[in-house]
Design brief:
Layout: H1 2-30, H2 36-64, H3 67-85, H4 100-133
Helix pairs in contact: 1-2, 1-4, 2-3, 3-4
Length: 134
């Protein structure tokens, strides 16, 4: 049981790092430290790995029987699938300045939900370690 929580913890840390990286690229673009092409290409390189990690995390919760965590992570996976199907998952170089505020808001909401999942995962990991000691 601890292995599942430990895996979820590291997956969530990786997801948070990817989202923070995307936010940093958008902030660099906003303050004109980087050009739109470089920013868009850097963000687009990590979008699909982020989606894959989120899917693996959701699948891990489903297969391990942690229904609450599965239900909390499902909306993010649904949102990612919806973005992918509508071809809105990649940042467009020509529209990045017009959509900068929306893109930053999307990633901030993702970051907040991932941090909540991280704290819940950490809580359940500690709970399962203490429960195993009894």
């Amino acid at each position: 049981m601890v292995f599942v929580w430990l895996s979820a913890f590291f997956l969530l840390i990786a997801l948070i790092v990817l989202v923070i990286y995307q936010l940093m690229c958008l902030a660099d673009l906003e303050f004109d430290y980087i050009n739109p092409y470089d920013s868009a290409s850097r963000i687009n390189k990590v979008v699909l790995p982020e989606f894959a990690l989120q899917g693996v995390l959701c699948l891990l919760f489903l297969l391990s029987g942690h229904w609450l965590m599965f239900l909390l992570s499902t909306p993010l996976v649904y949102y990612n699938v919806k973005l992918y199907q509508q071809r809105q998952h990649l940042v467009d170089v020509t529209e990045i300045f017009n959509l900068l505020h929306r893109e930053k808001k999307r990633r901030l909401i993702k970051l907040i939900s991932l941090v909540v999942l991280l704290f819940l995962s950490l809580f359940w990991m500690i709970w399962s370690v203490l429960e195993d000691d009894d």
